[in-house]
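User: Hello! I'm new to structural biology and keep hearing that structure can be predicted from sequence alone. Could you demonstrate with NAD(P)-binding protein? Please show me the input and the output so I can see what each looks like.

Assistant: Of course. The first part below is the input, the amino acid sequence of NAD(P)-binding protein. The second part is the output, the predicted structure written as tokens.
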Amino acid sequence: MNSSTTSRKTVLVTGCSPGGIGHELAKEYHLRGLRVIATARRPEALTALAALGLETLQLDVTKTDSVRAARDYIASLTGGTLDILVNNAGQSYSVPATDIDLDEVKAMFEVNFFGVMRMVQEFAPLLIASGSGRIVNIGSISGVMPYPFGSSYNASKAALHAYGNTLRIEMEPFNVQVITIITGGVKSNISRNPRLIQPTSIYAPMADIFREKRAGRSQVGAMPADVYAKQVVAQTLKYHVKAWFWIGNYSFFCWFFDTFTGRRGFDWLFSRTFGLSKLKNILRKKQN
């Protein structure tokens, strides 16, 4: 992975606001001696990273003009190359499938999925020019397992996984490797504003169960973000990267169930874990 203009590799990380995965990934790449371009939608969110000596840049992955401006700026810094693109920017949205606000879902997909496609399309020439580029897509175990009350978010990550699988094949002739990080529970702010079931929802009878079982669930026993970052960065810097790299709390569990039990194994487990089997009993009693 040699840049034509410098011996130091350059990495661009999206979504680097404090308290998130991207923030820690940017710091870890910096500690390993890479030239890091840390980005976020709000410039003020990058102050702490700038104080550590990282280069920072305002970037909104949902805006083509913003992405192209970042591409041109980085090309001017590096002589037209980029070694690693880390697509980390993301949003969460956890509500029952029947309660979704489609405008919110579309906005989430703009960040989680279309933003990645936009970044890849614009930065592909720089990655190819590096001679051995890397595209790192931050996926989720939610894109593999049917995590209840997260159908929209799960779908955005499943779409990202499918996109990455095909992108990996398409970019291989240009010596650009693509790795999808299947992320389990990691300490972050992505679920800092948990949604609650509303009284008008068909799931209102289990509102208390939802609050107990689902809200903030991803942060219970979650892996520290700095530990996550060390392992992910180490993996992305290998000569040959994995197609999928499973990491974070419950990631092994998810891999095991997905590999050995099939779809219905998840259905049985999550129905009981998240109170849907209790809801069934509640509804049955109301009918009697």
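User: So the tokens describe the shape?

Assistant: Right, they're a compact way of writing down the 3D structure. Reading them back into a model, for example: The longest helix spans residues 102-129.
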